[in-house]
Amino acid sequence: MVVGDVTTGTDVLIVGAGPAGYVAAIRAGQLDLDVTLVEKEAYGGTCLNHGCIPSKALITATDVAHDARNAEAMGIHADPAIDLAGMVDWKDGVVDQLTSGVEKLCKANQVNLLEGTATFTDEHTARVSHSGEGQGSETLEFEHAVVATGSRPIEIPNFEFGDEPVLNSRQALALDSVPDSLVVVGAGYIGMELAGVFAKLGTDVTVIEMLDSILPGYDDDLKRPVKKRANDLGIEFEFGYTASEWYDRDDGGGIRVVAEPAADAAADGGSAEAVEDEDAADERLELDVEKALVAVGREPVSDTLDLEAAGVETDDRGFIETDSRARTNVDHIFAVGDVAGEPMLAHKGSAEGQVAAEVIAGEPAAIDYQAMPAVVFTDPEIATVGMTESEAEENGFDTVVGQFPFRASGRALTTGESDGFVKVVAEEEDGYVLGASIVGPEASELIAELGLAIELGATLEDVASTVHAHPTLSESVMEAAENALGHAIHTLNR
Questions:
Q1: Does residue 276 surpass a pLDDT of 90?
Q2: How far apart are CA 28 and CA 115, in angstroms?
């Protein structure tokens, strides 16, 4: 039976049920607003279904196998068998538990859930087309709307994701067998995280990057331990190249990926002369592999909404520009998460979604990006928050820096993971914490303390005088603050 087009009304229409959208919906429901949340695919969005959660699940699983295989120094000798299909089934179970939890939380907060694709027809109306033959559509009139449609992987010419040997990150996370060899195009955080996963599964991995190093945007001292560990895992790097084409090999043994020298292969803002392997940039590469993973970044999903009908403007990259209250150029329409621009982080989207809901409800909310952390789940992990030393100085601060190496941490040594350090940047005169960076074990967990310090306006003395349990990795945060003050106990002071 075909369902006819009916018109209903709602206080708040939210398009997209990822970490930005579902948080906005739940918070708006808590504030007694009538909320309708439209999702065309799966609750939890890319993060819960195809990104953050499944990738971290596989990172954890492959770490278990790798650590067991390389624990001879601890007196452990093992050679675990890898069942990738079983590993993926476990990962899918984690995903299913979380996505079903999101749906239950939305319903518990009186959020109306609609499956379908929403497009604007004017600034107060949207049409929702339901999936499935004969399911029809309906029209929603809204007082406020929140766009939370997220992002998708960027395709590059000649590497369409519909071609079986060419994978995006979502497809790579769903493989049920380990490829013998893999080219990863792009050495950003997604490329480096997945390169590590497959290298630990036994895949021969080569990373092609047009710039001169991995993880553009991060300081060299943070990248250095990650690059060293990648080399130890057998990952090969080809800097100064862009992937140009691929074709099936005549012998039926996989594909050949062709890469050309990048015209401007340089470090962030640097020159082409910075390419590490200068000789390599003079000739094309031909790599014989089983599959290719393209991880060159993500782009906003804003072209499916007919935003022009609502009067909402985007920039030349398709991002929706917003103010500190998540408002677009149309006052009653908001945008949150990846579609609202960099940084494209799930927790940033959730914070924006909460602010949008509170602003709609008349609360005095605004977004503060000062203490917004960023994490790369490589081996070892990288985490940052606030300003770097150079950024602080560019903003007129006289700075003092404290650092503590994990090789001096008793707890790090007992885990077998002692590469890296904690670095704290503070204002010199009064000691206010301005930023921090960590590379090493559990960096993603340790960064929260320093984010809280920035949020609260804490000083180096506040952090240093807080007694930390021993033996823990968190002592390294305390010691870095003490080092900035000149009285660290377990490392030499500057």
A1: no
A2: 19
Residue 24 has what pLDDT?
Answer: 98
Distance CA 403, CA 413 (A): 17
Phi, psi of 360 (to 5 degrees): -60, -35
Separation of alpha carbons 487 and 96, rounded Å = 49
Task: Let me know: does 365 contact 371? Beta carbons within 8 Å.
Answer: no
Q: Are 141 and 64 in contact (CB under 8 A)?
A: no
CA 115 to mean position of chain CA atoms:
26
Structure tokens at 213: 């190093």
C-alpha–C-alpha distance, residues 146 and 131, integer Å: 21
pTM attached to this predicted model: 0.92
Of 130, 347, 470, 490, the catalytic one is: 470
Residue 267 has pLDDT above 60, yes or no: no
Band (pLDDT 50/70/90 cuts) for residue 132 is low
Chain position carrying tokens 């090493």: 440
Spacing of C-alpha 360 from chain mean position? 27
Distances (CA, A) of 482 to 314, 441, 459, 474, 475: 46, 20, 11, 13, 10
Q: How many CB atoms lie within 10 A of CB 310?
A: 21
DSSP string, 348-413: HHHHHHHHHHHHHTT-------TT--EEE-SSSEEEEEE--HHHHHHTT--EEEEEEEGGG-HHHH
Mean of the per-residue pLDDT values for the chain? Answer: 93
Which positions ≥6 away from 51 have C-beta within 8 Å?
A: 169, 170, 346
Mean pLDDT of 354-364: 97
For position 251, what pLDDT does the model report?
A: 83
Phi-psi region of 233 (alpha: psi -120 to 50; beta: other; left: phi over 0): alpha
Interatomic CA distance for residues 132 and 129, integer angstroms? 9
230/169 Cα distance (integer angstroms):
19
pLDDT at residue 447 above 90? Answer: yes
Is-catalytic flag, 470?
yes
Helix (H) or strand (E) holding 286: strand 285-289
CA angle 228, 232, 236 (to 5 degrees): 85
Query: What sign does the dihedral 359-363-368-372 (CA atoms) show?
Result: negative
Predicted pLDDT of residue 274: 40
Report the length, in residues, of the chain: 494
Contact (Cβ atoms closer than 8 angstroms) between residue 27 and residue 363: no
